[in-house]
Amino acid sequence: MKIVVDWDRCEANGVCVRAAPESFHLDDKDQLHVLTETVPPELRAKVDKAILGCPKQALSLSED
Amino acid sequence: MSLQTPSHPPTVSFSPDAPGYVLDPYPALEALRTKAPLYYWPEGRGWLLTRYEDAAAVLKDARRFSPNRAEWEYASVLGSAAMIPELVELNKAGLFALSGSDHARVRKLVSPALTPRAIERLKPELQVIIDDILNDLAGRDTINVVSDIADRIPPRVIGSMLKIPKGRETLFQRFTEAAVKSFLPGLLRPEEVAVMRTDVQEGIALVRETIEDRRRNPLPDDILTTLIQTEEQGDRLSTAELLSLVSALIVGGFETTIHLIGFTVYNVLKRPELLAQVQAQPELLKGVVEEVLRFDNFGKMGIARYALEDVEMGGVTIKKGQMVLVMLNSALRDESVFPNADAFDVRRNTNASIAFGHGMHFCLGASLARLEVQLVVETFIKRFPALRLAKEPSFGPHPVIRKMETLEVQLNQQ
């Protein structure tokens, strides 16, 4: 499972960073970085919360 | 599957004006959550949703639930009378009423100004304001945290963010008070309205003037300049939209912040062992603020949404045009999401918290509110190490907030 970001939607509100700091990071230019593109099983629950919580629905998981 | 029989036993009722509710709404909310989690409240003409799962689902479902009051079946009868036409006009392009692509467009243009990093850059400015307000307390023995500190923070912060010209702060404060009150027409006395209209007209003129001045003289690292200059695929905010946004900043950022300050100070001071911990480790305050939002949410009612079509949910049918009140205060005490939900635990994982909402209307000012409240409380307890609660807080009437009126605190050792 890979994290996919819809860059047109991302507004850098940091909700995903709070939910899953191991997987998401905002740099000092407010650019989002995905730290774990492939989601390790132990982070799956947190990443799911980040995806579900994204106000902009900018995050999703892809199969490949 | 749809059940046509009412899902609530006749024993359930809801009276937010009953004595005791404002002090401790939680027994009443728990009764609803366990006995009738989707309850049609006849007096309020809307559904009360008290379970976390339903609350999160409705907030997330922008396709079927709108925040726009015009969608309400009673909008034409009970809609807030246009007492202050200037404000109705002012709020038309505001973020609270917009939905769909209009909302997405405006939100995208504003969000860079309120990201966690952008807010972090405001920290020195916030600290100056807080120090200034606390300086005024020197020599006092007992203060009211609400009127002496909390009430004074948001007007200064927002005025400073927008760089309202020096000497005009009082007018800006009157404007902000009028803008907030207009959302609560039930609390207004008729004789207040005329004064408010003048305040609002002068306030709008002041903000408009500030915007025009900033267009001519852009400032570095300035929110208003950023908003004016932000372009999104050739798109810009009009002056009307900028005015609406300023008003959204006020309405979204005032009473909420004031109450979060009051409730946080109260929850810390009533637990002397927590006060000692926070004094030793100020970084704990982050968790304290999150837990106060969850455990002792200042909301009296819920977030309103209006069904855009018939929706089957939890065994009931919410009809098109009906109002749903998403009771965050109850959802945040839902045992199925927050184990041991009735315990105040500043170290708990509050990632699931929906205190700032959920979905596309998630509070844009969340980072600002968090930082503002943490800094105020941290500075306050550092400045007055011997401070303690003088008496329990008192609450006043308010349609949607458990309005803390006094929180008397003794600053120094007797």
UniProtKB/TrEMBL annotation, chain A:
Residues 1-29 form the 4Fe-4S ferredoxin-type domain. Keywords: Electron transport, Iron, Iron-sulfur, Metal-binding, Transport. It comes from the Bacteria. This is 4Fe-4S ferredoxin-type domain-containing protein. The keyword Membrane does not apply. Gene3D superfamilies: 3.30.70.20. GO terms for molecular function: iron-sulfur cluster binding; metal ion binding. The keyword Electron transport applies.
TrEMBL record, chain B:
The keyword Flavoprotein does not apply. It comes from the Bacteria. Keywords: Heme, Iron, Metal-binding, Monooxygenase, Oxidoreductase. Gene3D superfamilies: Cytochrome P450. It comes from Archangium violaceum Cb vi76. It holds the Pfam family p450. GO terms for molecular function: heme binding; iron ion binding; monooxygenase activity; oxidoreductase activity, acting on paired donors, with incorporation or reduction of molecular oxygen. This is Cytochrome P450. Belongs to the cytochrome P450 family. PROSITE patterns: CYTOCHROME_P450. InterPro entries: Cyt_P450 (IPR001128), Cyt_P450_B (IPR002397), Cyt_P450_CS (IPR017972), Cyt_P450_sf (IPR036396). SUPFAM superfamilies: Cytochrome P450.
